[in-house]
Amino acid sequence: MAEQAPCSCGGGDKSRIIFPCCGQANTGQISNAAAIQLDEESYGGYACTALLASSEALAKRAKEVDEVVAIDGCGMHCAKKIAEAGGVPVHQHLVITDLGVEKKSGDRSFTPDQVEAIASAAWKGEGKLQESGKGKKPSDGSGGCGGKCC
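Above: the chain's sequence. Below: its structure in token form.
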């Protein structure tokens, strides 16, 4: 079997770190469960968002990865705000209430389907933010991926 050339755009093997909001409502619990699922699926590494507020080592590591993903439960955008306050740029931002889940304060229940929907949204890049172009490798379609992974 011929060995496939590595992807030239780097989209197929990005290093990622995931910061969930972990809020007290159902949507915060979904953000945490989705981050755990994404970590288990090797999409990216789960990281403690609260620790980011006080750990220079975690902030340094987050600045070195290819992509930072913030998963917030609601429009308060706590995970994204904590990351940005630490100087960590967010490349993909998913807001669970924007993805069709109603926030229910005082109710932490959720379904596996809701977690799967958020994890799938991350895989699809539905929360991708505008990139400045800094550090982005252009795809020329010759690296084995067909240029579809960016």
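The CA atoms of residues 34 and 95 lie 12 Å apart.
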